[in-house]
Amino acid sequence: MSHEYRYEIKFILNEINLTTALDWIYSHTFIREKYDGRFVNSLYLDDLYFQAVKDNLVGLSRRRKIRFRWYRDGDGIKRFALEYKNREGRLGYKEKFDLSLENRQKLLDQPICELIDSAQHLLTENPSINCLAHSYYTPVLHIEYYRQYFEDYQGVRVTFDRQVKFRSLTARGKIKEFPQITYPHIIMEIKFSPELKNYVEGILRFLPMTPKRHSKYLAGLAAFGFVSYI
Question: From CA 140, how far away is CA 188, in angstroms rounded?
Fold first, then answer.
């Protein structure tokens, strides 16, 4: 399987920083809003040793996070998939396995263990996918946020994630039953393929902000006191 590697540069914003970022977009780049925003949901899984957490905290150059992802807009739940988010040095790529789950909204109203069981059943029917069926993972964290999408003619993407909410999970409960913690920051991400590195470095010279390594997964766990993460 070939992978689409890309860089991801992240910035943590408040409302003042957001104004600066938008001014940079419209004054110094050809990046413009690509399509309507929508709510993004991620349900993160980890093994019994919380290996994904440990790998991220120490900054391991090769690491992986596993999550279910779905999207929500005015018409309901869109696209439901299992994703591997992989990191190799400074580059990352995703492996996506779309799940054709009947009545997605009803499924999300069931205990999380039933959601995982349904996904495992679909995955084991496809011999080309070697993932959940051969390892034990448990639900750890649910994240929801509103994402706006921008892109230029070169394919450089900029996203803004706001209204971020975290839920700490257990397998037997339903997602909506767990209390939420609101994250006060806006996360801006600039995503681009390796061949555009020099181009992006050029336009970033006009952005008076400093990027920061950031993980919503770790920020959510820190919000519940499970890890120390700034």
Answer: 24
- Both tokens of 90, joined, read 């400074």
CB 25 within 8 A of CB 150: yes
Element (H, E) at 112: helix 112-124
pLDDT in tens, 68-78: 999 987 777 87
Is the Cβ–Cβ distance between 148 and 73 less than 8 Å? no
8 A C-beta contact, residue 58 and residue 99: no
Give the tens place of pLDDT for each residue, 94-133: 988 887 766 666 767 888 888 888 777 766 666 555 555 5
**Quick one: tokens of 214?**
């950031």
Q: Which residues contact 123 (CB under 8 A, 6 or more apart)?
A: 82, 97, 99, 129, 131, 132, 133
State pTM to two decimals.
Answer: 0.91
